Here is the input.
Amino acid sequence: MKVPFLDLSLQHRALRPEALAALAATYDASRFCLGKDVEDFEKNFAAMLGYPRVLGMNSGTSPLHAACMIAGFKPGDEVVTTPFTFISTVWGVSYTGATPVFADIEAGTFNLDPAKFAAAVTPCTKGVIVVHLFGQPARMDEIMAVARRHNLFVIEDCAQAVGARYRGTSVGTIGDAGTFSFYPTKNLGGCGEGGAFVSRREEIHTQARHIRVHGSDRRYYHDIVGGNFRMDGFQGALLNVKLPHLAAWTARRQAIAARYLAGIRLADVILPATPDYGASVWHQFTIRHPRRDALREHLAKHEIGTDLIYPVPLHHQKCYASLGCGAGSFPVAEQAAATCVSLPIFPELTDEQVEHIIASVNSF
Ligand SMILES: *Cc1c(COP(=O)(O)O)cnc(C)c1O
Here is the structure.
């Protein structure tokens, strides 16, 4: 039985008539940059979050960039974040000329360890970027307490955690700014690039709205330095078609994860932690094993696709070599990168495929 790591075509085939009708309406109305489709999506997405204000943007990187601009990060400032994430988490810090400072993760959830975060704070620290990695909310109470003590700007990178809640509150609405990605492989994916910015603070929302359109509220008048972070009309239209399905897709991901957690019985395997403060929306199901590469080969022989997310922690990326974080700087993140392997987890997987994956892991 063949099981791909991810197959987006199944979802797109199922939604084809609706999706193409929505895209055709946008095409016919020539609503290409922001416009009604994006506004509708912003309202619908805000309702899903239980939240009043959302701004559609053109990627998940753009709202992170905008958040760093609004935070006022500048050369000499330090911004703490996790070294075990997608590179995009820290780009905004570098774009503003500030310095990313990494703090190690906790082993169970792969997320920023609040104690390590607290220890990384210096008089130069101006902010923190929290990532809810693989769909699992991070420990926001502890992180917010450290941030408040030091008056830090808190950015939540929710690219992998759309719809996840921390103690009942949607992730992205706890810190000063929250960011989402609708890259096609995310739990809610567009047909191209997309993202969103949220903030519970009105003045931050207004700044982000202006930054999105060249720092302007009125055409050809530019009060602040901005960029072009607008969402496409096509993305808004497609995301409006997909959003009503998100809850069911998330429930299916959670059902698959529950099967994995109950069924995987391999010696030395470490399963992802499931803390009770907030359920994961399972963007990835990532296990660890000391012989990870051999396990991957074994699964490939059983025609099961897997992926390494992430093979190299950020402090070991060439682009951040100048930070001088050698081997052993962040041992938990380095251990995770060396031993993790992600199994297929997407809503269209059948129970038979999931059972085949479990049996194949257990036979290693
Ligand atoms: C996908 C992702 C982003 C944003 O990526 P884009 O490709 O710009 O949409 C940011 N952070 C994390 C953790 C991600 O997984």
Q: What stands out?
A: The radius of gyration is 20 Å. The pocket of pyridoxal-5'-phosphate is lined by residues 59-61, 85-86, 88-89, 131, 157, 159-160, 181, 183, 195 (CB under 6 Å). The chain is about 40% helix and 15% strand. Residues 246-263 form the longest helix (18 residues).
